[in-house]
TrEMBL record:
GO molecular-function terms, A-Z: methylglyoxal synthase activity
Name assigned to this protein: Methylglyoxal synthase
Lineage: Bacteria, Bacillati, Bacillota, Bacilli, Bacillales
InterPro entries: Methylgl_synth, Methylglyoxal_synth_AS, MGS-like_dom, MGS-like_dom_sf
Organism: Paenibacillus rigui
E.C. numbers: 4.2.3.3
Annotated SUPFAM superfamilies: Methylglyoxal synthase-like
Catalysed reaction equations from the record: dihydroxyacetone phosphate = methylglyoxal + phosphate
Biological role: Catalyzes the formation of methylglyoxal from dihydroxyacetone phosphate.
Length: 143
């Protein structure tokens, strides 16, 4: 099953993200990738992967990915955050992470956890997401 994976990296983490995606390109090539603006561009420039790009994080890209999480359209997220640099859009970041918790979407915020998730993906450990998509409830007309 093809998974929808979001790749987000703060400025000082973009090189780390690109190197990570290069290392796991054979795994990522079987999945649908999404990213915020510059991160997506850098990944496409350095790999043969296609990436659906959203706006830059501070310009709403985190919220665009959050909308997919809220509707259970994203299977997991790798968000390499820079914990040592204040981010002007910190409320958007917190909202995205909260949505992941609400929807039960796996999210890695550092390279170690990202590697564990990608290795699990390669083993097929995300097959449970098929059930989520198969039995996803429709919108209730009364809501």
């Amino acid at each position: 099953m093809s998974m929808k994976i979001a790749l987000i990296a703060h400025d000082r983490k973009k090189d780390e993200m690109v190197n990570f995606v290069i290392a796991y390109e054979p795994v990522f090539q079987h999945h649908e990738l999404f990213a915020t603006g510059t991160t997506g561009t850098r990944i496409m420039e350095n790999t043969k992967l296609q990436v659906h790009r959203f706006m830059s994080g501070p310009l709403g890209g985190d919220q665009q990915i959050g909308a997919m999480v809220a509707t259970n359209e994203m299977d997991f997220i790798i968000f390499l955050r820079d914990p040592l640099m204040a981010q002007p859009h910190e409320p958007d970041i917190i909202a995205l992470l909260r949505l992941c918790d609400v929807q039960g979407i796996p999210v890695a915020t550092n390279i170690a956890t990202a590697e564990i998730l990608v290795k699990a993906l390669d083993r097929g450990d995300f097959a449970w997401r098929e059930l989520v998509h198969k039995y996803k409830p429709g919108l209730d007309d009364n809501e």
